[in-house]
Amino acid sequence: MARSGAAVLLLGATFLGAALTGCAAPEAATAPEEEVWVEVGLAVDGFEPIADGDPLELVQGPQGGWHLDLGARFDAPFPDGAPHGEHLVYRIWDPDHTAQVAYPMKVTLGTGTCEPANPGWEQTRIRTVFAIDDPSEVVGRDWLVEAELLAGPEVVVDQRLIVVVDDE
What we know:
24% of the residues are buried. The strands form two sheets. Strands 1, 2, 4, 5, 8 and 9 form a six-stranded antiparallel beta sheet that branches. By secondary structure, the protein is mainly beta. The protein is built from one helix and eleven strands; from the N terminus they run H-E-E-E-E-E-E-E-E-E-E-E.
């Protein structure tokens, strides 16, 4: 059976298209994005993880206010591999997360505000000051302590329900 020239060209184009499609380079695999995470903790001399229900010591500051010594362990795909210009915000909330009971503390990350840790980075000694007149307003009660990491477009938050104590 003889084929016309047009049929041969069409058949050839079909095989060529199939061959080119089959030989096309696969799309480049995208690397998984690095995870952005933060963990709030107690941080007097170094970072200490805390769990829900842990007691945190109320501290009277040198100017007469009352605070908790908070900190965070965190990581993100920071430009140049190190935090620089990102922010951590520390807050203390009522257990229903409806009202803050302390002044928010926003810290810009960079040289001198955080240290390398394994894993990630740590920030310590952040005095989150309660907006109270007397310690009895917070001692023996549950509160949410929170660290919020603002790293570029990413915002991640970690919270723990703690009990404020005044043992010292």
